[in-house]
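User: Run a structure prediction on this.
Assistant: Running it now.
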Amino acid sequence: MDVTSPTPTPTPIVLGANTRGMREFLHPERQGGVVVLDPTGELRPAVRELVERPESLAGKRIALLDISKPRGDVFLDRLESLLRERLDADVVRYRKPTFAKNAPVDLRHEITVTCDVVIEALAD
């Protein structure tokens, strides 16, 4: 406990760095809980407003974004098939160069100007 602050806070116990170099902390107030810190190093998280979701995907151009994690393409293959079969959807596929970084600006721009919605796949 930090007794110098007005409200004592539990002192995290460092468990060590994982394979991606992020430190993991166990907070004594959480029974067995592990918190993995965000590796992007934001000092202040960006505040973004949520975009209104369409009532239906019918008639929309749908971007499927594979973030390059293993088996993400398997999930997106099935999703694309369902979207085409059930909605006769216009589906466009995109792939990030690596899952370790944000999508490049030009890729985000292309998706924004050519598609109505985007579905991003995560897998392992």
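The CA atoms of residues 72 and 123 lie 5 Å apart.
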